[in-house]
Amino acid sequence: MITWTPIIEKEKLTPDAGVCALVNGKQVAIFFDRKTDKLFAIDNYCPASKANVLSRGLITSVKDVLTVSSPLYKEHFSLTTGECLEDEALSVPVYAVRITDGMVEVTA
Amino acid sequence: MKRIIVVGNGMVGHHFIDQFIQQDKMAEVQITTFSEESRLAYDRVQLSAYFSGKTADDLMMTSPEYYDDNGVQYFVNDKVVSIDKAAKTVTTAQGRIESYDKLVLATGSYPFVPPIPGKDQDHCLVYRTIEDLEDITASAKESKVGVVVGGGLLGLEAANAIKQLGLETHVVEFAPRLMAVQVDDGGGKILRDKIAALGVNIHTEKNTKEIVKGETCRYRMNFADGSHVETDMIIFSAGIRPQDELARSFDLTLGERGGIQINDQCLTSDENIYAIGECALWQGRIFGLVAPGYQMAKVAVDQIVGSGDLAFTGADMSTKLKLLGVDVASIGDAHGNADGAQNYVFTNEADQVYKKLVISECGKKLLGAVMVGEAEDYGTWLQIYLNDMDIPGAPENMLVPPAEGGAVTMGVDALPDSAVICSCLDVTKGQICAAVQDGATSIGDIKTITKAGTGCGGCSALVTQVLNAELASMGVAVNTDLCEHFAYSRAELADIIRVKRIKTFEALITEFGAGHGCEVCRPTVANILASFWNDYILEDDHLGLQDVNDVYLGNMQKDGTYSVVPRIPAGEITPDKLIVLGEVAKKYGLYTKITGGLRIDLFGAQLHELPEIWAWLIREGFETGHAYGKSLRTVKSCVGSTWCRYGVQDSMSLAIDLENRYKGLRSPHKIKFGVSGCTRECAEAQGKDIGIIATEGGWGLYVCGNGGMRPRHADLFATDLDTDTLYKYIDRVLMFYIRTADRLQRTSVWLENLDGGLDYLKDVVINDKLDLNAELESAMAENIANYQCEWKTTIESPEKLLRFKHFINSEESDTAVQFVEVRDQIRPATPAERAGQIAVLEVS
């Protein structure tokens, strides 16, 4: 059974930025893109820099793919697939995210 | 299929092999190469870069993978020791026997060590291979003084190397001047003065008689004239000799003084054996440069699998180099040996520049040239020489441009298509233009397609000129768009934002851009907005634009923790405040280090600790140091006339005042200031974006200096300024820089790219050429008036503080952040240590 963990009210999120949530022991990076009014959730661990920092990266579009640019060495990870655009061998898990009654919820 | 054996895998041997690969001829041949060194070919020309941080890997020109992929068989650490010309086989030191159809000797050269008694002791070294450099580095660790025997090109490179290793450096030369082959007496004198001024001791006309045990150092070198020098290590760099041992042993014809004799086809006295590069002797000459070696390689390849039409016809030995930071160039007949040759000489002892032209009797042709101290015109002059073109105007105007009408220049348009632009790789102007016609638009494209500029790099400026001229002739404007989201340059966007008074990224991209934005345009626009309006950068409208460090007002370190850098204006700090920093560091267990900019860095703070730490610091009177921003960093200062018995002005008060005036000013890149209280320049102001040096008459202002990756001395902008005028000039220079620079462009590069350069900047700032000064000053005043300590604003905003936690929904911290203790302080644990293999500290 899928369990959704409530994280924070959506209105408390800063637009075009990420936050990190602790969900069942996992670190989940949640991003809020203002332009499309969409939320994205991927793992917070950056496999390239080996640190839990992806939520602190800049949201950027690379040829129309919405990505987060890892803050340490700037690899781009797709917010929808978790793939690293620079290195096929690297990717991060993607998690489901939704809004219920103004509350951001994640499964992980 | 022809079996080819290449003896030696140096630059030329590799170039020979690479020609088959590049020309797609590998199906016709089976190539085997042997190297007695442990590595495949590396860039010997750039050897000295090893001492400025390049590794052996950086210098590699090929790799086992590249040879494997292309079917080249290779053996390192194995030397060919015999040739059986009749059976057409070679035997190696390890007993390997291989047969060939064609044998290519590319054995290079070895350093000549004069037969001086005592030369074979420890710490007596040569400078030729990466192993030699490793030996030099090891020896330098046990030495204080080093001597280089030989004041030629390689000798001076070796001198540079041991100087960089921190040794007291001497150069001993037999001839009366340095670089005797390339430079004449006049140039030699300036070169000597310049190198001596760098702290290298030059001894010319010294014939070393013996090397004996020293009194103050390991050795003493006794010279024939009775003098001596004491040293701990000796590097012999007294010329090269062709490595012709193999040819000598197996009866190939040699020259009288060595070298494997070759004909125009690079063939030796055996019809199946070629010799190329520094081991080969052509018409009695050895060519000790890489470009002729590459030409020989091309000829040999053409003989083996091509038309057989190519011939080696000699090579131009003109060179340009930077030795110990001094530009030296030599073209053609540098000594004016030709009949009727006339010399034109320019000497500027103040700036230490020497230039000589050797002109033909008819006064129209350039036969040779020497340049020391400044060699900007080398590319142009070389082309005139190589293409036998008439010189433009009177020879003296080539040396010193006439006052009226500007410099005598010869645009690249004047060059014929056959002009060789890159002599290392033998690339002509026509080939570069053809690449542009085929779509190349950048210097990177040109390098990839034509290989021009990938050798010694001396032709880069000329290649760029040819590229730009060809682009211009095709009507292609050079693309200065910021990124795919904005079809404007940074300077244009800055104008738009300023004139239209645009306050947010959304407003800008909606009206003037497209799409979502990226990590280029978002931080750039955030930076421009901050420069002009100076709003709080973590406002909701701006936060998502900020670069990594700006978002959390700290510099993110490799483990995701942050550094904390409070402002300590001009490095002046009370004991009480110093104690506060110590207490903070101790309480939070932060790694503490004093920076190069006179302040104190505290490392290892986690996100949730930042607000507590900053609240404490602010309570004690500190402010943010903006170490995370593209903004004013530090104003470095000496104590000046308050304490120093030499100081002539109060540099300390000025520096503090300047730092407080410009703190928080966001700019295209970081900005550093320096203020020295007298001409001794202890604050190193000339290495800063804005440098101020006190004189009896007031302040001297220097602009656009830089340390870092590409150091640049600041230019003197104005002298004897009073404090008010000084501030006005700095206001104007900085605001003009903010308006017109490219993104991430330091002031040094900005000035170098500014049309009209320093004179133009002076015209704008001092003479108000653009009628802009009032506007620049008021823009600066507006910025200063809107200054805020971003950390103070942040700790007073509960909603902003929400983001300063590792988890938005939990008070826990990141368990992956772990530290190890080194010298009683922390450092981040390595991945292996974190994986539990090695003990780490408990994190509170």
Written account of the structure:
The complex is a heterodimer of chains A (108) and B (844). In chain A, strand 3 and strand 4 form a beta hairpin. By secondary structure, chain A is mainly β. Chain A is built from no helices and eleven strands. Helix content of chain A is 0%, strand content 51%. In chain B, 31% of the residues lie in helices and 21% in strands. In chain B, the strands form eleven sheets. A five-stranded parallel sheet of chain B has the order 3-2-1-7-19. In chain B, a hairpin with a 2-residue loop joins strand 35 and strand 36. The radius of gyration of chain B is 31 Å and the shape is globular. In chain B, 45% of the residues are buried. About 1% of the residues of chain B have low confidence. Classes of the chains: A mainly beta (108), B alpha/beta (844).
Structural class of chain B: alpha/beta
Uncertain segments of chain A of ≥5 residues (pLDDT<50)?
Answer: none
Shape of chain B: globular
Overall spatial form of chain A: globular
What string gives the helices and strands of chain A in order?
EEEEEEEEEEE
**N→C terminal distance of chain B:** 71 Å
Average residue-wise pLDDT of chain B? 90
Regions of chain B with pLDDT < 50 over 5+ consecutive residues? 404-409
Q: What would CATH call the class of the domain at 2-109 and 242-305 in chain B?
A: Alpha Beta
Could you tell me the CATH topology label of the domain at 2-109 and 242-305 in chain B.
FAD/NAD(P)-binding domain
How many domains of chain A?
Answer: 1
Strands of chain B, count: 39
Largest sheet of chain A: 6 strands, antiparallel
Q: Radius of gyration of chain A from the CA trace?
A: 13 Å
Short description:
The complex is a heterodimer of chains A (108) and B (844). Chain A is an all-beta fold and 108 residues long. Chain A has strands spanning 5-9, 17-23, 26-33, 38-43, 45-46, 51-52, 58-62, 65-69, 76-78, 94-100, 103-107.
